[in-house]
Amino acid sequence: MNEIAIRFTNVSKIYKLYSSSRRRLLGLLFKRIPHKTKKAVVDMNLTIFRGESVAVLGRNGAGKSTMLKMITGVTFPTSGEIEVNGIVSALLELTSGFDQEFTGRENIYLKGRILGLSDADIAKLEPAIVEFAELEEYIDQPVRTYSSGMKARLGFSICVNINPEILIVDEALSVGDRAFRQKCIRKIQEIMQGDITMLFVTHSTETALEFCKRGVVMKAGRIVFDGDIHAAIDYYNTKY
Ligand SMILES: Nc1ncnc2c1ncn2[C@@H]1O[C@H](COP(=O)(O)OP(=O)(O)OP(=O)(O)O)[C@@H](O)[C@H]1O
């Protein structure tokens, strides 16, 4: 039987919009503070099996990032349930969780621990992480001395070298210069040869076709198509 990697059951996410930061703060304490609501994800049901590579297509504001953030635990559903089985690595906010005063090496341990790895496991992965990030000279300097590209390279390198079981990629991601981006794409292709589950948010149907076999099309928070990637792209291009 196929193993479930990710399952959404009747998941909705409703954001509350307040007219000022003061009201937003009060809104955390009192339910009655006036606000508008935005349904970012509406009653979503979706099952992704281990080893599947799924593209999520949809225009700006369709709810794609909200869906990913709920998988990684950055935000929580307002209602419904999300089941996630496996170590998740998200190429979304690559530098989140870094301590600017810590060195690159110390941050590898910091982020590795956040991702649930033991120090012994991280020690084994450390050389590959440093090498891939091309930060040998700087790895023992505080991260605050890094350029934004260097930080992103370190973040990317940690995410792809920890042997994730579920990889979440947002194409908005731009890591370092062109040569490094090519290297990232090759690395993603390489880890996709294994038994990894991948979720790929993209506006590019070409990229979706290159990486994914299944396509989910989202519109206004709902899944409007789910199936073979060719059919999903056809739906997105002609019926969306
Ligand atoms: N923190 C938030 N507070 C309020 N509204 C939000 C928040 N995050 C997202 N939204 C709203 O939820 C809706 C879905 O946003 P989301 O970022 O998930 O869309 P998206 O499909 O990822 O878009 P894009 O392609 O532009 O990245 C949008 O209308 C957005 O304005």
UniProtKB/TrEMBL annotation:
Keyword field: ATP-binding, Nucleotide-binding, Transport
CDD domains registered for this protein in UniProt: ABC_KpsT_Wzt
Family matches, as Gene3D superfamilies: P-loop containing nucleotide triphosphate hydrolases
Signal peptide: none
GO MF terms held by the record: ATP binding
Transmembrane portions of the chain: none
PANTHER family in the record: TEICHOIC ACIDS EXPORT ATP-BINDING PROTEIN TAGH
Protein's UniProt name: ABC transporter ATP-binding protein
SMART domains registered for this protein in UniProt: AAA
SUPFAM superfamilies, A to Z: P-loop containing nucleoside triphosphate hydrolases
Keyword DNA damage carried by entry: no
Family listed: Belongs to the ABC transporter superfamily.
UniProt superkingdom: Bacteria
InterPro entries cross-referenced by the UniProt entry: AAA+_ATPase, ABC_transporter-like_ATP-bd, ABC_transporter-like_CS, ABC_transpr_TagH-like, Bact_Polysacc_Export_ATP-bd, P-loop_NTPase
Pfam families, alphabetized: ABC_tran
Occurrences of domain ABC transporter (ranges): 6-240
